[in-house]
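Dissemination and training. As part of the outreach component of the grant, students in the summer workshop were shown how a complex can be specified as a set of sequence lines and then modelled as a single object. The example used during the hands-on session is reproduced here so that future cohorts can follow it. Participants entered these lines:
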Amino acid sequence: MVDKKNILRVKVSNSIGINVDKCYQCGKCSAGCPVSGNMDFTSSVMMRMIQIGEEIIDKQILRSQTIWVCISCGICLSRCPMEIDIPEIIDYLRQCSLEKKMQNKKSERNIIPFHYSFLNSIKYTGRIYEIGVAVEYKLRTFNFFQDLSLAFYMFIKGKLPLFPNIIKNRKHLSFFFKKYKK
Amino acid sequence: MSKIGVFVCHCGENIASIVDCEKVAMRASKLSGVVFSVDYKYMCSDPGQNKIKEAVKKHGLTGVVIAACSPRMHEYTFRKVCAEIGLNPYLCEIANVREHCSWVHEKVEFATQKAFNLVRARIEKVKNNLPLYPYKVPINKIAIVIGGGIAGIQSSIDIANGGYKVILIEREPSIGGRMAQLSETFPTLDCSQCILTPRMVEVAQHPNIMLYTYSEIESVDGFIGNFSVQVRKKAKSIDEKKCTTCGLCYTKCPMKKNLSEFNQGLSYRPAIYVPFPQAIPNNPVIDRNNCIFFQKGKCKICQKFCPTGAIDFEQIDEIIEIKAGAIILSTGFDIKNVDFFPEYGYGKCKDIITGMQFERLASASGPTIGEIRRPSDCKVPKKVVFISCAGSRDCAKGISYCSKICCMYTVKHAMLYKNKVPEGISYIFYMDIRAAGKNYEEFTRRAVEEYGIKYVRGRVSNILLKNEKLIVRGVDTLLNGKPIEILADLVVLATAAVSCKYSEILAQKLHIPYDIYGFFTEAHPKLKPVETNTAGIFLAGSCQFPKDIPESVVSASGAAAKVLCLFSSDELVREPIVAKINKMPPPLFSTCMGCELCIGICPYKAISKEEIKDDNGYVIKSIAHINSTLCQGCGTCVAFCKSKSIDLEGYSNKQIYEEVIALLN
Amino acid sequence: MTQIGFFPGCSLKGTSSEYAQSIFTLSKMVGINLVEIEDWNCCGASTVHNINNKLSVTLPARILTLAKQQKLTEIVAPCAACYNRLCIAQHQLKINKFLRNQLFETFQICIDNNISILNIIQYIEKYIFEKIKEKIIYFFKYPVVCYYGCLLVRPHKILNFDRLEDPQSMDNLMKKIGALPIDWAYKTECCGGGFSVSRTDIVVKLCGEIIKDAINKGAEAIIVACPMCQSNLDTRRSCINNYLHKKTNIPVIYITQAIGLAIGIKKKDLGFKKLFVKPTFI
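and obtained this result:
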């Protein structure tokens, strides 16, 4: 049987050059993962799901919370006996999920909007403007009251600059975003 | 004038379905020098062989070409047929029209043409063949066994019982090896030492076995039947003839805090020591690196107390030369230590131990007299976690193979623990249970069903220390990758079995191949499992790959049988395919100019310098000389020789040239 | 005066300005002039690679290109995330010829493979410690745990810094200023990193476990070298206390602050005021 081209196992192999069949399901990645408890299925199960190579299961992966909850701490890779770069696979899956608009509904309420707020800050100022990120995140999530007192104390301690620290060559940077369409 | 006979085999349908054998035979019959040509269904069968015999007799053939399967299969058969009828067997050549032709081609027309070409090339070669005669070399019927573990012991006893002398060489002060360190053995749970020590005693008492302990191989020269081995007998600092093994010396030695190798670092031994009570020989040795006298120049307490004056600080290493006809390698294996595992704490936690250390804990002769106690605080562990595949099947750690023995010894450990600590709980983290062996599967099932040992499928990610307990972080992959944390008192790692530390150096001394892991390579993985590529050197036990005890014993007896087989004749017949320096009448003597290039490149050290002297003893010329008994016919010197003075008999430049020309036309 | 390139990163300009302050004070003491890379941009931190892989290489590559243009051969990236991203980008462009050409053709980005990127520990070991050895007057005689986090040590094949598990470099530095580094289990466990805002619950749980072990092992301070770890462990302390059902007051101090104290720099100049959890014992 020849795998279809749009199956994740093939895409992972073609795009980032990782052979998911190297995984023999020892589970060491899941065992060390600090956030496995917050995932809908753990990393080793995810590897098995990719290995199976069926569209329905692929969709489950792309719609999962697993790929967004991963913090990219790298423990799984560092302990994997087969040296499979799971963080890189997950990075790739997140991008697939966004492309296909299959983002996980729960993560769409917190993790994903934060990523976008962060990205926009870089896009417009070149550096992180914390207040800007926070405001945009609140607007995206309607979560207006989160961390207000913390922000206040940080401001008092001089940890939150009032004005953005804008770089000179913003054109260069916005060109990146234009090219990458994001 | 050559009279060549051509015999084309159909090999049933194997050849005939693609190659038109009749046509090949017919076309061959028209070639110059061919006086007889025939095809037949099975040339290797009795009627087929008779056809060859009849033709040789009737036509007075001077050469035979058989178009059939690979020479690896039946060259020996057909050459024997020729020899029986009085034709020199080296005048018989095989054209491989099966593996090289019919099996790999599809079109009859082309395959038939190719088969004919192959036959024609062989005909041209055989026309230039000369009768050759095998060499005979005498056999020195003494065997050397390197390594005195169970494999070496078994091989030695088998050969010695066969009536030949054996010299057993062991690096450590005592024979016994790994098996002596084990507590019980799977799947019967019988005491390892109880079954091993009678064999050790047998070695010591056997009139045909000579034992050199505390000795190492310096160098190996020679070839099958005639090896010459230099052995370094390390100074034991004890006169074994005077020593009565009373043991006073090691009870008095003040330098007692040396980690015991035999107990895997779980206890201490003095600087003058016997590795374990049943050691053979039972004389102590002085570990000079840790002896106060050898380090600081003062002490000699052991000498003062020795009632027989056996202690000899002056002793030096002795190099002895042993002549032997065969060598068996049985150097065994090592295991990875706990410090090999970053995720399990680099060995900094005392309560994470190796399987071998657990063996010592469980052994009645061990540091705890057979009680299972934690190395850190000597408490009896209530919960033990066993981790299999620690390092094995782990490409990231450079060990991609399965160590084979761990599954079984881990379940044995868990059962021993349960027997000794009935209220204790044990977990085994595993990936697969590989229990292929007689009664092995039943053994593991018994552990689960009767002993209540909990198998958890998943690998342990890391181990954290918490209040003298160990948090083992694993996962149950059979429960969808559910994380599991076990608060354990003791963790036992079934660490990977690896080749011995010095195995590669030893292999280089013996000129035998080894794999990337340092295990010695057998000559054929299936059909020559105890032979090496160097004739006369055999493998026994785990130096080839991790083996359990029965497998080690099987291979040891196998290697011994090979040696006995070799020793059963007085002379060794060797193929005459060797390199020869051409000889000329004086004053030239040879075209060899004596550049000596070949001497350096010969991998078998078969070439030396020969001086041609006149009647008065003056050297006229020096040329290369090839020792036919050492030469393996590899042809390296032929290719290197600038003056083209060397030819390989049976494959001379002229023969090859004619063969190639025939193929090109 | 030695001149070394300096990449502060966004954190050091804002949320962890005390880290920047202590680094500058220390550097000044040993006569090193840290030259900030001009017009640097954000490295992408722990976020951009989630959404756009190429951008996550391009952003740090621009920084390295600027460093090259400004003729810097060595740059210090005190923020562990910046250090991590810069090293990964350098590695990616080293092995991926296609990407290298693409970045050059579209964005005129061309980096120098030989620029060495130092994290704060490497910087201290290489340039600072030898010169301040004699100046250590106030031995930092406290039991501490050194917290390395993820980004300094992983991926180990690329960063190749210290030991993968149970690293020692910070512990050794702390030993040298008289501290008693304790062996503990959470040296390289994750603090939750960039989830501080979006998944505070995860961060609080992970940080809670870290702080619990540190206290259990008898530490009086957690020594860090990463602004993200510091901020998660420090500014989120009230939530962490709720999670642990216990009031904890173990301070989270940057390694540069600890060294600064040992050589007698005033607390004011090391930015101690900005810590949320006050190191009352000092």
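Residues 53-69 of chain C form the longest helix (17 residues). Students were then asked to discuss how this feature might be tested experimentally.
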